[in-house]
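From the pipeline queue, job 12 of 40. The input is one protein chain; the requested action is below.

Action: predict structure.
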Amino acid sequence: MMRVRLGQTKMRKLVWEISIPMVFSMMLMAAYTVIDAAFVMNMGNGGVYANLAITYALPIQMLSAALGVGTGIGINALLSKSLGEKNHKKASKIAGNAICIWLVF
């Protein structure tokens, strides 16, 4: 059975429940980069350049993940609202725009 908690649970608790998995995910991405850097530094002369590439790639990777997740959450909210209002024409336009945004990125 599904429990409705959005209107009944305190906002502070809901924010923590939602944000902890996201923070954990970002920490895993950073840990992956640190482990990757430690591995490529043992490659010899080319390790320095490989480490430089990894160092430059991390912020780009984090930014692209944040943009993708943020856009997806926003589109999901708009789509859910439109479907809840039974406005299928608007929901169809939102879904089409979401596909276009996906193709661009």
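Job complete. The longest helix spans residues 46-84.
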